[in-house]
Amino acid sequence: MSIKVTAVSKVYKSQKALNKVSFSADKGEIIGFLGPNGAGKSTMMKILTGFIKPNSGEVLVDGIDVLQNPLEAQKTIGYLPEHNPLYTEMYVREYLQFQAEIFKIDKTQIEACISQVGLTIEAHKKINQLSKGYQQRVGLAAAILHNPKVLILDEPTTGLDPNQLVEIRALIRALGKDKTVLFSTHIMQEVEAVCDRVIIIKQGELLVDKRLAELKEDHQQVIVVTFDYKIEEQFISRIPNVVSYKNNYDNTWYITFESEKDMRPVIFDFAQENGLKILELNTQNKNLETLFREVTSA
Ligand code: ADP
Ligand code: MG
Questions:
Q1: Which of 22, 149, 160, 171 could form a disulfide with 164 if both were Cys (CB 3.0 to 4.6 A apart)?
Q2: pTM score, whole prediction
Q3: Closest ligand to 44 CA?
Q4: Where are the beta strands (DSSP E) in 162-204?
Q5: What CA–CA distance (Å, rounded) separates 229 from 223?
Q6: DSSP 185
Q7: Tens of pLDDT along 157-197?
Q8: Which atom of ligand 1 is nearest to the CA of 36?
Q9: Would strands 15-25 and 3-12 be described as parallel, antiparallel, or unpaired?
Q10: How far is the centre of ligand 2, averaged over its atoms, from the C-alpha of 82 (Å)?
C-alpha cells in the first residue's frame, strides 16, 4: 500500500475541515482527489505530506507513519503545493539546484528531471519569463528531484489554458507510470482524462472512492437523507439493498444502495414505518454526470 489514510479529522479553530476521512492508494495508481472549493483537499494534502497535523487519525505513506516520522516520510513524497510557490526571480536550472541544495538531494539528477518534465529548452530562462504551464513544469521538476515514490499534486492544472492543460495532464499520466500520484482538482473531466481512481470529498466528508471503470457502469446510488431525529445504525442496515451507510454529525445519513430502481420511495416508507419524518432526501452518484453535478455544486 502506497498511501493509507485512516479516520483523519482536522478542525481549524471552529472550522471542521476533515471528518474521519479514510482511503488508500495502491502502488502506481493515479488518483483524482476531487471536490469543490473548501472541501478539504489542500488540508488532506498538507497532512499527507507532514506539513500540518490532524486532530486524529493515522497516515502512512509507503509504510512510513507521517505523523511520527514526517522527515522520513517526506523523502518518499514529492509535493507540489497549491499556487506552486516558486522563486520567480531565479533561473529554472538555478532554482532546481537551489532546491536540491536545501533538501540535500543528489544534484546529478537535475538534468534528468528537467528533461522528464519537458523543460530542456526553457531551463536557462528566468521562471517569471515562463508561461503558467511551464512554471507548473518547474514545480513538478522540483517535486520529483529526489525521485519520490509518491507524488502529491495540489490543483496542478488550475489556471492553465486549454493547451497547457492537455500537456500537464499528459505529464501527470507519464509520471504516474512509475509513481503513485494523488492530485486534486475540481474538474470532473480531468479525472476522466487522467485517473485510475477517483476520490470525492465535500465539506470534509469522503463521498466516493471508486475505480473509474467501476464508476462508469455503476448501479449504485447514494441517497442522502436527513431525518428529524437521531436513529440507530441497525435501523438503516435493515433497509433493502443497502450496501453501506455513513452518518453525518447531524441526523443526515449517506446510504449507498445497489439497485437500478430509485430507492427514495423505499426510504420514505421506511421512515413512515418507524415514525420518522424526512427533512431532506436526495439521490447522488448514479453516474459520472451526477457526480459531476455533486462536485460542482457548492
Ligand atoms: P480545498 O483545498 O478543498 O479548497 P481546504 O482544505 O483549503 O479546501 O479548506 C477546507 C476548509 O478549511 C475550508 O472551509 C477552509 O476555509 C478551512 N481552512 C483551510 N485552512 C484553514 C486555516 N489555516 N485556518 C482556518 N480555516 C482553514
Ligand atoms: Mg485547495
A1: 160
A2: 0.77
A3: 1
A4: 180-185, 197-202
A5: 17
A6: E
A7: 988 888 888 989 999 999 999 999 999 998 877 888 899 99
A8: 3
A9: antiparallel
A10: 6
The set of cell numbers assigned to 193 is 482524462
Quote the crossing angle between the two packed helices 132-144 and 92-102, to the nearest 10°: 30
Burial call 100-131: b when 16+ CB within 10 Å, e when fewer:
beeeebeeebbeebbebbbbeebbeeebeebe
Number of H helices and E strands in the chain, helices first, is: 11, 14
CA distance 168 to 240: 45
**What is the pLDDT, as a whole number, of residue 111?**
95
Centre of ligand 1 from the C-alpha of residue 82, in Å: 12
Distance, in Å, from the CA atom of 167 to the CA atom of 134, rounded to the nearest integer, reads 10
Task: Report the nearest-CA residue for atom 7 of ligand 1.
Answer: 42
The one-letter code for the residue type at 266 is V
Q: Indicate the burial class of 71 (C-beta count within 10 angstroms; 0-12, 13-18, 19 or more).
A: exposed
CA of 44 to the centre of ligand 2 (A): 9
CA of 236 to the centre of ligand 1 (A): 32
Instruction: List all residues whose CB is within 6 A of at least one atom of ligand 1.
Output: 12, 15, 17, 35, 37-43
User: b/e string for 217-248 if b means 16 or more Cβ within 10 A?
Assistant: ebebbbbbbebeeeeeeebbeebebbeebbee
The DSSP code for 55 is S
Q: pLDDT tens, 114-160?
A: 999 999 999 999 999 999 999 999 999 999 999 999 999 999 998 88
Kindly tell me if the per-residue pLDDT of 286 is higher than 60: no
pLDDT in tens, 102-111: 888 888 899 9
